[in-house]
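Deliverable D4.2, example record:
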Amino acid sequence: MKAIFLSDAHLRTKESPAYGRLLAFLDSLTGNTDRVFIAGDFFDFWFCPGERVYPEFIPMVEKILALQRAGVLVVYLEGNHDFFLNDYFRAHDIATVPDAAAVELEGKRIYISHGDTVDRSNRRYLFLRRMLRSRVAYLFQKYLPSTLLWRVAGMCSDLSRESYGCADEKLAGTMEAFAITKFVEGFDAVILGHCHKPLLKKITRNGREKVFAILGDWVAHGTYVVYENGTFSLRYFRDDTRAV
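Output generated by the structure prediction step:
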């Protein structure tokens, strides 16, 4: 069993540095990977009702669908920049998850989430998140003309980023404390995105090893987490020797 976890590419245009790297990375998974979990903010914004996809995203969307057709199980967890995903991906048999997912891999219970709701003290952001995911916002983006929709989506993406306003170091500490509560609930691993500080820690509790991971990003780091042969490791694309 080999599973890949990644997040936070924040793709907007095909010219962004992360775009080409990600296409190459996803290509490298065909034939050697069983599952891929995308933990949100893969696209910097996603307002794509029905079959309408932002033109810049088409090559990446086609690559994700090709993975699924090749037999890789793809699961897409929504982030704070990409949601309302089900309208498009359900037609292509890709599971989308609006919040968190609890999965089991070879007997290990794993909690996966984008992680943007871990910090419950940021009420301004949590309010904005509820508004952007509301039924009113859904209907608004569903019927807006495409050219105007993409413009509004970019504005919403910038607003979401500004509203969070939490330093990565502080957020990483909050996430680790959250992971401990999940370990108490019986999870063996907690994997989160959102914070762009890549991190993997192995913690022993009651004689059992637990894993806490922050996926980092593809803008500055090109990081992802691999589960293989019962072990989690943090890796950097194009340099798999740098594993933690």
